[in-house]
Specification:
Blueprint lengths: L9 E5 L4 H12 L3 E6 L9 E4 L5 H8 L4 E4 L7 H6 L1 H18 L5 E7 L25 H21 L4 E6 L1 E3 L12 H10 L5 E4 L5 E6 H14 L6 E3 L4 E3 H12 L5 E4 L8 E2 L4 H7 L7 H15 L1
Parallel strand pairs: 1-2, 1-4, 2-3, 4-5, 5-6, 6-10, 7-9, 8-12, 9-13
Antiparallel strand pairs: 9-11
Helix pairs in contact: 1-7, 4-5, 6-8, 6-10, 8-10
C-alpha cells in the first residue's frame, strides 16, 4: 500500500483493541504516526500511549481527544442477529452515546474517520450505492445498530453544516473479519462464529436460514487499507462504501469454511430461523475512483488465514 507517511501527527484510534484496531494501529505506526489508543481492554505491550477507559464517560473522552491531529473512530458494540434483538436498547443507546461524545470532542480535529456500516442501507435488489441509505428503513434484523450509525452520520453532516467545513471521512464497512476477531458464538458475526463452531466439533453444523442470503465480506487487512486511504483522500467527500463489491451466499461461505478446516462436517439448514436481509452487497465505484481502493484478498484465502490464527491463539 503506497500512501503518504504520518510523521509528526498524533492519531487517536478508539476501539483500538478490536478486530480492525489491532491491524490498523501497527499500520499507522509503520507510517510514522504517533498513535494514541483507547479502549476498555488492555493493549499489547508495545503500544506506547494506551488509555483504558469508557467512551460513555465525557471526562475520559475529553482527555483522550486533547491535542490530537487525527482520529479513527472504530469503537462500537456489535453482535449476531439474535444478540442484537436481545440487547436492542444497549446497541442503540450506548453506540449513540459513544459516537456523539467522541464526535463532539473532536469537532475541530482536522481529519477524522468515522466507521459506519453496510447495515444503514434498506433492503435493496442490487448493490447499495452511497446515495441509497435513506431510501427506506434499515432491515429489522439489524435496525438498532443501523439507526445509531445513521444518526451519527447525520450528526457529522450537521457539524459540517454548522462549521462550514467538512473534516470527516464517513466509511461504510461491510462484514469484516480476520485475526483478533470476536469468536464468541453469542456475539460473533458470521465468519468467526462459524469458525468457532466448526473448530469445537459441532456436527452437524446447523445454520440459520436456507443459505441463499448474499453478503459482502472483507478481510481485515483490506479494511485497514480502505480506512487509511479514506483518511488521506476521503475527507468531506460524503459516505464511501468500503467492501469487496462481490456477493457470496451464506451457503458458499459455510461450505468454504468447512473446506478450509479440513474437517468432515455435515451442514444442516434451519429455514425456520431468520437469516436477515436477502442481499447486502455494496457498490464500490466511489472507493475505487476517489480512494484508489479495491479489496485484494479472496475470501477462501482470508478464511484460511483467520482459521490458522484462531487455531494458534484459541
Amino acid at each position: 500500500m503506497a500512501v503518504e507517511r504520518f510523521d509528526g501527527r498524533t492519531i487517536l484510534v478508539t476501539g483500538a483493541t478490536g478486530l480492525i484496531g489491532r491491524s490498523l494501529v501497527p499500520g499507522l505506526m509503520d507510517l510514522g504516526a504517533t498513535v494514541r489508543t483507547a479502549s476498555r481492554s488492555a493493549a499489547p505491550g508495545d503500544w506506547p500511549d494506551h488509555r483504558r477507559g469508557d467512551l460513555r464517560d465525557p471526562a475520559f473522552v475529553d482527555d483522550i481527544c486533547a491535542g490530537i491531529d487525527g482520529l479513527f473512530h472504530l469503537a462500537g458494540i456489535r453482535g449476531a442477529i439474535s444478540w442484537q434483538r436481545a440487547e436492542a436498547a444497549t446497541l442503540l443507546g450506548e453506540n449513540l452515546l459513544m459516537d456523539l461524545l467522541v464526535l463532539r470532542a473532536t469537532a475541530a480535529v482536522p481529519r477524522r474517520v468515522y466507521t459506519s456500516t453496510v447495515t444503514v442501507y434498506p433492503s435493496l435488489d442490487g448493490d447499495a450505492r452511497e446515495d441509497q441509505a435513506w431510501d427506506g428503513d434499515p432491515h429489522p434484523s439489524a435496525e438498532y445498530v443501523a439507526w445509531s450509525k445513521r444518526m451519527a452520520e447525520k450528526f457529522i453532516e450537521a457539524q459540517a453544516l454548522q462549521s462550514g467545513r467538512g473534516n470527516t471521512a464517513v466509511l461504510r464497512l461491510v462484514n469484516s473479519f480476520g485475526p483478533h476477531d470476536d469468536f464468541d458464538p453469542e456475539t460473533a458475526l458470521v465468519v468467526p462464529a462459524l469458525i468457532h463452531r466448526i473448530e469445537t466439533g459441532e456436527n452437524p453444523l446447523t445454520v440459520w436460514g436456507d443459505g441463499s442470503a448474499v453478503r459482502d465480506f472483507l478481510f481485515v487487512e483490506d479494511a485497514v487499507e480502505g480506512l487509511i486511504r479514506g483518511y488521506l483522500q476521503g475527507i468531506g467527500e460524503g459516505p464511501i462504501n468500503i467492501g469487496s463489491g462481490s456477493g457470496l451466499s451464506i451457503r458458499e461461505v459455510v461450505e468454504t469454511l468447512v473446506a478450509v478446516s479440513g474437517r468432515d462436517i455435515q451442514i444442516a439448514w434451519d429455514d425456520t430461523k431468520p437469516a436477515g436481509a436477502a442481499r447486502k452487497v455494496v457498490a464500490t465505484e466511489k472507493a475505487r475512483h476517489l480512494l484508489g481502493f479495491s479489496a485484494r484478498t479472496p475470501f477462501a484465502e482470508a478464511a484460511a488465514q483467520t482459521l490458522a490464527w484462531y487455531r494458534a491463539n484459541r
